[in-house]
Write a structure and sequence with these properties.
The complex is a heterotetramer of chains A (509), B (526), C (310) and D (270).
Chain A: H1 2-24, E1 32-37, H2 52-61, E2 66-68, E3 74-76, E4 79-84, E5 90-95, H3 108-120, E6 133-140, E7 143-148, H4 155-158, H5 169-179, E8 191-197, E9 201-206, E10 220-225, H6 229-237, E11 243-244, H7 249-256, E12 261-262, E13 270-276, H8 286-294, H9 298-306, E14 311-312, H10 335-345, E15 351-357, H11 361-376, E16 380-386, H12 388-397, E17 402-408, H13 414-421, H14 429-432, H15 438-449, H16 453-469, E18 473-478, E19 484-486, E20 489-490, E21 506-507
Chain B: E1 6-17, E2 20-32, E3 37-42, H1 48-55, E4 63-71, E5 74-75, H2 81-87, E6 92-95, H3 99-102, H4 109-121, H5 125-138, H6 144-147, H7 157-168, E7 175-179, H8 187-204, E8 207-212, H9 215-221, E9 224-229, E10 232-238, H10 239-244, H11 249-256, E11 274-286, E12 292-304, E13 308-313, H12 319-327, E14 334-339, E15 342-343, H13 353-358, E16 359-362, H14 376-386, H15 395-405, H16 422-435, E17 440-444, H17 452-469, E18 472-477, H18 480-486, E19 489-494, E20 497-503, H19 504-509, H20 514-522
Chain C: H1 2-29, H2 34-39, H3 45-55, H4 61-73, H5 87-122, H6 127-141, H7 144-158, H8 170-177, H9 179-205, H10 208-215, H11 220-250, H12 252-257, H13 263-272, H14 276-304
Helix pairs in contact in C: 1-14, 5-6, 5-9, 5-14, 6-9, 7-9, 9-11, 10-11, 11-14, 13-14
Classes of the chains: A alpha+beta (509), B alpha/beta (526), C mainly alpha (310), D mainly alpha (270).
Chain lengths: 509, 526, 310, 270
């Protein structure tokens, strides 16, 4: 009796769960593009974060003066055309007529406000582009003037970056700098926010006032955050999402066999490196750093890590950057010389830590390989896997020996890249490596102001050569975005500068 | 005599276990006539309860039963479960020893009494409940209408036993099997329950099988008696005949072990020095429902050197609390305890060794009072070792000596409590107390969990120790006859107060207080 | 009754206070900077300082705690450092999902536990008992994330029966989306509960009152239902209460694998992002719900067992 | 002696003993170096040179599974021993003496219990930094409460037992009574619980490994190996299957020991 009742109970539960499949059927099919990513949207204020997840969202919400064409070349965006003064200190932009998502016009004053806000807000995360800006003002509603203290060549590339997405002055002043970007900000880009479920997803719908008529081509988008890579891929395979951001080495084989999935090689302006702490033995000794580089069989590492989807890095700059030197020889694999250098430096048997962030199986794999190579030349390698916050803290505090990292640049302009990664006096201590070479710092400043492209090329070539010989960092490989797409959509890709072409994406009819 | 109601022929019960088969009951035959009360007497392990349960097929699955059990010409052993179920509760029903555990704690008593009515007579729940109220009235439970909704834990032991009886007679069975129905109860309650059984027997012509370890109880109500030992009936017959002219030596021993028959000559205290002076002790406990409960109320008594003081009273009257106050295990709210004129009330958690050496205690439960992980040797040696009472080289010798003193065979030294009998355990407890070489021994109900024959031996042992060592004893017991045969002085406790005290001969022969009289009257004697 | 419940609730105040101190202390001792976690590693030190200043992280620790408690007394759990959204709102956003999952697990677990527990106890020592025991051990020793991953691969990707992720819409949608997660949790819970119930049943089956009931001629099935099962349910109910409290905070892994936006995910992200106020608020919320669930279990026990007083 | 053990205890002890032997003799039982990577032979299927195949960096799975027994057994033992010692000591004293110490300890227990277990461990690991030692420290700080509660409840009963009263009347000191009389008679359920707990510790370690905060690479540990390998589940099932099998078999062994001990010591009837 009690058994039959219980059995019926269990049966009922089972039925209620299986029936929905047939009853509910497929969910509504508006043309919504869903992208699942490891990276989180942390804020919707374009100047307040440089984290990948946030940047990807900024691009969808805020239009910029310039934009990129399909070949990633600069073309007019909100600015129809622009003029640069001969000394490269004055920029004048002529804006097209456009509206914010609330229907108000986008004026030159809004753009000036956007630029000045980035320069002046103490919380602006990454204001290098406008650091040297003297002023920005509206000449009239559709004409903007920007003036720098000294020649500033990189600026034009800089205005294309997502951080300089244009925000509404009226709205920011009305709601305040914090509230204007919580929940639903006034957007100027292709999309506006329907709902921001923090820690879960950002739901977007087309901005009806977007200046590019006819765009977006879809009915909306969702940027979904999922921690586990296996889940992300399962979601793609089950057709729940259209694109997966950041798949790992482990899944290439499986996904490349899946007929419903494409794995395009999408170039990224980034380089994978081994950061070395120049302030702490043993890597404070240049011989040890050199040995560490010579010990690594870069081609093997690249092959193992990328499965043929990218190249070994030959300099410290991403290969997509302007003035990248493709002819630089890079590191040769010479373990004997490495062992000899280690012995000379008296570092045989020295303890060396490699910090990596968890959970990331690729970094762990890379660390294992490096450990094996370094072990062969007599270093005693300890891998330390830790959560991102702890990792960042240790990096910033200089509390590490070496660290496997990648960094990317927001535009083709090498100025930002070298300031960030190699310049010891530019604020970040050369990506927290404490690398210091006065000549490099000097060349960095020269590069910003140099107007002649050939001479600029020479400057950046020298920087690359100097930093490489100093073993500022050890470049490992250039790797494309590891994204996977459903064959059901077209027009979606991730630009080298970490921006989705979401407005051009649509479902294959 | 007409055809018997129940006929048990050649009943054999054995239990299968990993170690093999053990025979619990062998070749037991007896019968019960209509309206007859027969008693089955025996000590623990004699097979009396097993025989009783075998009648209703209530033994665990590991039991195998053979023989014949006929109830009104129906062989009960031949019945299937359903057939047995129809008999149980309707024709033959049973009441058990421990009413607290034999009632479902989660069900109101009214429902528990109604259950058999619903299942045997298809009564509706309301009808059954009305009938249950009637039955509860019959077993003299006061205010049955209100009590039906009570739960077992809200009732006293006696009331619970009445409820169990009410449920047993709910369907008007012909035979009631009563398995030690009064063992866990106080004497006064016991007397009333026995009275109730007797009156049910008379009013409803109900046959009763009364199983008990206490010959006196059985003698009080039964027409015939069976004496069992080691699974066999050693003697049976008319009650008077068995008691006055027992044939079997075991029956004789059983009768002689009765406290009232015990031939103990307690040594007379010659010393008149006051050993222990307890004055105006008040003890309060926090009661579970909040507030406080007064366990002892202005208790004073005096014990002279070499004397044996009996402390009697029903459970919860404060006897044991007194013992614990004297031992320093319970701190009184006020009052004082003096040993030879010196206050021995303890301040710290650890008891003062000098006091411990003079006052020692033996506990009620033989198994619970020994650490189950210690061997006999370890138990006795521990105080000697810890307090360095003897040099290490003399330790073995002293342990052997103590074991000899309590008449424990030296071969038992390495055994753990689980491998000992109750009486042996109690001897170990006494030996452990004696290891401290005390002047005063507090014996807290030390025989209440033991069979009568063992009880007699332990009492004899205590008596010998008094004689040989001039030991003073506070003897706590609920059994007045025992106190009468063993003690010089007696105090009677009721609800935390001393209601009467004085020399044993005076108090127990001519009690002044009605409570003492009632206690005395309730004690079944041969 | 009300008085006793009130008294019990009064007891939790010191516990909550202790928890707030411990969690505050833990957070302060944990390395990592919430400001850095928002701004990113390229951000300048000045920007990080500015954000820390706005968040009040540069104030002395005691003052921070004082401010926090002052807000808390007014019923304000504070704002998420990362999202500038009230913590209570964030919790309310994620709570229904976890709540639904917990209920779902209960609905799946209870009948199966009773069924299997009874089957095992009644057939003690026979093959069905052994089978149930062995599968229980298997269910308990299988790592949750591994099992969850396998189920996801088989039932969602290969067979397409259930969705991989999310919460779905509407009651039926929720049922459908959370089926696999609920099963994953149940597979761990059921063995624990079945073992407990089986042991309790076996113990009660040997209880004196069962023999007494039998002597009254009651049918075995009735005895089992009305007496044994009821008595045996008490310890299992208590264990169940403990497990439910565990469920509210302990489904992190399952939530991560099935990408369910529940409290576990929220806590996980808050810890990774060092979102102090969210961690604090959630911890207090967990503690509070633990106490409430314990109270409810105790009340249920008291309902079944008249001997128990709250 | 062993002949009188229940069947489940014998079986369980057998499994655990096998793993112990494997752990001790790991270097002699295995053909390879557990940490040697071989990029030419990644994800090789079982058979041939590799009994259980190789993983994503070409390490021999069999070797690693066997070596992992060392870490997992150590983790299980330490992860149980540390909280057991703390919890039992606190529970004993709190239960025996009662009073203020008991009240304070029980409040601390309440506080710890109200913290979600995994999250507390997560926070502590984040605070102390990852690694197996810190994981065990975190466990010790959290898990002692279960032991304390368990033993305290028993102590409350045993301290009123007559043999404990007797020990007091014999004038023994409290520590002596606690450790010689109370502890031995309350420890059995703790031991049984510890067996189950050991399974949970190994599982918790694995769960933490899934979030990436468990043992540090390249340490061979079953949980971490399962977590690493599950990404390759379609391409190379063996990478996570064999460590999974090992963990489950070890867990079953421990559970059986727990079952058997419970039966032998007559704690409940399982």
């Amino acid at each position: 009796m009690i058994f039959t009742r219980l059995l019926i109970c269990c049966l009922l539960i089972f039925l209620t769960t299986v029936i929905p499949k047939s009853v509910a059927g497929e969910e509504d099919e508006a043309d919504i593009i869903r992208i699942v990513s490891l990276y989180r949207t942390q804020t919707l204020d374009p100047i307040k974060s440089v984290f990948t997840g946030s940047i990807e969202a900024f691009g969808q919400l805020y239009t910029r003066l310039l934009r990129l064409d399909e070949n990633d070349e600069l073309i007019p965006g909100l600015a129809l055309r622009w003029e640069i003064s001969a000394d490269a200190t004055d920029y004048t932009f002529f804006l097209r007529k456009a509206k914010f998502s609330d229907g108000s016009p986008i004026t030159a004053d809004d753009v000036a406000f956007t630029l000045l806000r980035m320069r002046d807000d103490p919380e602006a995360a990454y204001s290098e582009t406008v650091e040297d800006m003297q002023n920005a003002w509206a000449i009239d509603d559709h004409t903007l003037r920007v003036r720098f203290n000294s020649a500033n060549i990189p600026f034009l590339q800089g205005v294309e970056t997502a951080f300089l997405g244009i925000v509404s002055r009226a709205d920011v002043e009305r709601r305040g700098s914090v509230d204007a970007f919580s929940d639903i900000p006034v957007s100027s880009g292709p999309y506006q926010v329907v709902e921001w479920r923090r820690n879960d997803r950002l739901i977007l719908e087309p901005n009806p006032h977007y200046w590019r008529a006819g765009y977006p081509l879809n009915d909306g988008a969702e940027l979904i955050e999922v921690v586990d890579v296996n889940t992300r891929i399962a979601m793609l395979q089950a057709g729940e999402v259209d694109a997966v951001r950041y798949i790992q080495n482990s899944h290439f084989a499986e996904l490349s066999e899946d007929p419903d999935v494409v794995l395009p090689v999408e170039p990224a302006m980034r380089v994978s490196v081994l950061l070395l702490n120049h302030d702490r033995p043993p890597f404070s000794d240049k011989r040890v750093r050199e040995a560490a580089a010579l010990a690594l069989d870069m081609d093997r590492i690249t092959k193992a890590m990328l499965r043929g989807r990218g190249r070994t890095a030959n300099t410290l700059l991403p290969e997509q950057l302007e003035f990248y030197d493709p002819d630089f020889p890079g590191w040769e694999y010479n373990p004997d010389r490495a062992r000899q250098l280690i012995e000379e430096a008296g570092a045989t048997g020295a303890d060396v830590t490699i910090n990596i962030t968890a959970p990331d199986s690729d970094w762990e794999m890379a660390a294992l390989i490096v450990q094996s190579y370094w072990g062969a030349i007599g270093l005693n390698v300890i891998i330390q896997k830790m959560d991102q916050a702890l990792y960042e803290q240790r990096l910033e505090d200089g509390d590490y020996d070496s660290s496997i990292e990648w960094w990317y640049n927001d535009s083709k302009e090498p100025d930002l890249a070298v300031r960030w990664a190699l310049c010891g006096s530019c604020g970040n201590r050369a990506y927290y490596t404490n690398y210091q070479n006065d000549r490099v710092d000097e060349l960095v400043e020269m590069g910003t102001a140099e107007m002649d492209p050939d001479r600029r090329r020479e400057i950046y070539r020298e920087i690359q050569a100097l930093a490489f010989r100093d073993v500022a960092q050890i470049p490992l490989y250039y790797f494309p975005w590891p994204n996977a797409y459903s064959t059901g959509i077209e027009g979606l890709r991730l630009r080298p500068s970490t921006q989705w072409t979401l407005e051009e994406a649509r479902r294959v009819p | 005599m007409s055809e018997p109601l129940l006929k048990v022929c050649n009943l054999d019960v054995s239990f299968r276990s990993r170690g093999g088969e053990t025979h619990a009951v062998r070749n037991v035959s007896f019968d019960v006539g209509v309206g007859e009360i027969i008693g089955i007497v025996g000590e623990s392990g004699s097979g009396k309860s097993v025989s009783c349960r075998a009648i209703l097929g209530l033994l665990p699955e590991s039991a195998s039963v053979s023989g014949r059990i006929e109830y009104s010409d129906q062989n009960l052993l031949g019945l299937d479960t359903e057939g047995l179920r129809r008999i149980r509760g309707r024709d033959v029903s049973m009441v058990f020893q421990n009413p607290a555990s034999h009632l479902d704690p989660l069900m109101a008593i009214g429902a528990q009494v109604s259950e058999p009515l619903i299942h045997h007579q298809d009564a509706s729940p309301t009808q059954a409940l009305d009938a249950a109220i009637e039955r509860l009235r019959e077993v003299q439970l006061e205010h049955p209408e209100q009590r039906v909704n009570s739960y077992p834990h809200e009732l006293s032991g006696g009331m619970k036993q009445r409820v169990m009886i009410a449920a047993a007679i709910a369907c008007g069975p012909g035979l009631l099997l009563a398995d030690e129905p009064t063992t866990a109860l106080d004497v006064t309650v016991q007397a009333r329950i026995l009275e109730l059984l007797k009156s049910l027997n008379e009013q409803h012509y109900l046959s009763v099988v009364l199983v008990s370890h206490d010959l006196a109880v059985v003698a009080q109500v039964c027409d015939r008696v069976l004496v069992m030992r080691h699974g066999e009936i050693v003697e049976s017959g008319d009650t008077k005949q068995v008691i006055y002219s027992p044939q079997h030596p075991y029956t004789q021993q059983l009768i002689e072990s009765q406290p009232s028959r015990m031939t103990i000559r307690p040594p007379v205290a010659t010393d008149t020095d006051t050993l222990l002076d307890v004055s105006n002790i008040d003890v309060e406990f926090a009661s579970p429902g909040g507030g406080t409960m007064r366990a002892l109320n202005d208790v004073s008594l005096i014990l002279r050197q070499g004397e044996s003081l009996g402390v009697v009273g029903e459970s919860g009257s404060g006897k044991s609390t007194l013992a614990r106050v004297v031992m320093g295990l319970v701190k009184p709210k006020s009052g004082d305890v003096k040993l030879r004129g010196q206050s021995i009330l303890q301040k710290r958690n650890r008891l003062d060794l000098s006091v411990c050496r003079k006052v020692q205690m033996v506990f009620q439960n033989p198994y619970d009072s020994l650490n189950p992980r210690y061997s006999v040797y370890e138990t006795i040696a521990e105080p000697l070792e810890r307090h360095k009472l003897v040099p290490a080289t003399k330790l073995d010798e002293r342990v052997a000596e103590l074991m000899g003193l309590v008449e424990l065979d030296s071969s038992l030294a390495s055994r753990k409590p689980a491998q000992l009998s109750g009486g042996q355990c109690q001897r170990v407890g006494i030996a452990r107390a004696l290891a401290m070489d005390p002047e005063l021994l507090i014996a807290d109900e030390i025989t209440s969990a033991l069979d009568v024959t063992i009880q007699a031996q332990i009492i004899a042992l205590l008596n010998r120790l008094r004689e040989e060592r001039g030991l003073s004893v506070i003897f706590i017991s609920h059994d007045l006859t025992l106190v009468r045969s063993f003690c010089d002085q007696v105090v009677v406790f009721q609800s935390g107060r001393i209601v009467e005290s004085g020399a044993v001969s005076g108090v127990l022969e001519q009690p002044q207080k009605s409570y003492t009289q009632e206690l005395l009257l309730s004690v079944p004697t041969l | 009754m009300f008085l006793k419940v009130g008294k019990r609730l009064g007891h939790i105040l010191p516990v909550l206070l202790g928890i707030s101190i411990v969690s505050f202390g833990l957070i302060q001792l944990t390395p990592g900077d919430p400001a850095r976690m928002i701004l990113g590693n390229k951000a300048s030190v000045e920007a990080v300082e500015a954000v820390r200043e706005r968040m009040g992280l540069n104030e002395p620790v005691l003052q921070q705690y004082g401010n926090y408690m002052l807000n808390l007394v007014q019923g304000d759990l504070g704002e998420s450092l990362r999202y500038q959204q009230p913590v209570s709102e964030l919790i309310m956003q994620f709570l229904p999902v976890t709540g639904f999952l917990a209920l779902y697990v209960i609905v799946l677990t209870v009948p199966l536990t009773i069924l299997l527990g009874i089957l095992a106890a009644r057939n003690r020592g026979r093959w069905i008992d052994q089978l149930i025991r062995m599968t229980s051990v298997l269910g308990m020793t299988m790592p949750v994330f591994w099992l969850a991953m396998l189920m996801l691969r088989i039932f969602s990707v290969e067979l397409g029966w259930f969705p991989v992720s999310g919460f779905g819409t509407g009651f039926v949608g929720h049922l459908h989306h959370l089926f696999l997660p609920a099963v994953s949790v149940s597979i761990y819970l059921i063995p624990v509960l079945v073992r407990n119930l089986r042991a309790a049943l076996l113990e009660e089956m040997n209880a004196d009152y069962v023999v007494a009931s039998r002597s009254k001629g009651l049918p075995e099935g009735y005895i089992f239902r009305r007496h044994i099962l009821k008595n045996a349910s008490l310890p299992t109910l208590n264990l169940f209460g403990v497990l439910i409290t565990w469920l509210i905070g302990g489904t992190v892994i399952v939530e991560l694998v099935y990408a369910i936006p529940g409290l576990g995910t929220l806590m996980f992200n808050a810890i990774l992002g060092r979102d102090y106020s969210v961690i604090q608020g959630l911890t207090l919320f967990y503690a509070f719900s633990t106490v409430i669930i314990t109270l409810v279990t105790d009340m249920l026990s008291a309902l079944i067992d008249p001997r128990i007083e709250l | 002696m062993i002949a009188r053990w229940p069947k489940s205890l014998r079986f369980g002890a057998g499994i655990v003993l096998l793993w112990l032997i494997a752990a001790v003799l790991a270097p002699w039982l295995t053909p390879a170096d557990p940490y040697a990577i071989d990029l030419d032979n990644t994800l090789r299927p079982p058979g041939g040179d590799w009994l259980m195949g190789t993983d994503h960096v070409g390490r021999d799975v069999f070797t690693r599974v066997v070596f992992a027994a060392r870490i997992d057994i150590w983790m299980g033992v330490m992860g149980v021993l540390a909280p057991l010692l703390i919890g039992v000591t606190i529970g004993l004293f709190a239960g025996y003496f009662g009073g203020l110490f008991d009240s304070v300890m029980m409040r601390i227990v309440d506080i710890t219990l109200a913290f979600p277990f995994l999250i507390l461990v997560l926070a502590i690991v984040a605070m102390l930094g990852p690694g197996i030692t810190n994981f065990i420290i975190a466990l010790a700080l959290v898990a002692w409460v279960s032991y304390a509660r368990l033993i305290r409840a028993d102590v409350m009963v045993v301290k009123n037992a007559e043999y404990v009263q007797a020990a007091r009347t014999l004038g023994f000191s409290s520590p002596l009574i606690i450790f010689k009389h109370v502890l031995p008679n309350t420890i059995s359920p703790i031991i049984v619980y510890a067996m189950t707990d050991m399974v949970l510790v190994v599982l918790a370690g694995a769960s933490l490994g899934f979030i990436g905060l468990g043992v540090q690479p390249p340490t061979a540990e079953w949980g971490a190996m399962i977590a690493d390998g599950q990404a390759y589940i379609t391409e190379a099932w063996w990478v996570s299957f064999f460590p999974g099998l090992a963990a489950v078999s070890f867990g079953i062994g421990l559970s059986l020991i727990g079952d058997g001990l419970a039966r032998m010591l007559r704690i409940g009837d399982t």
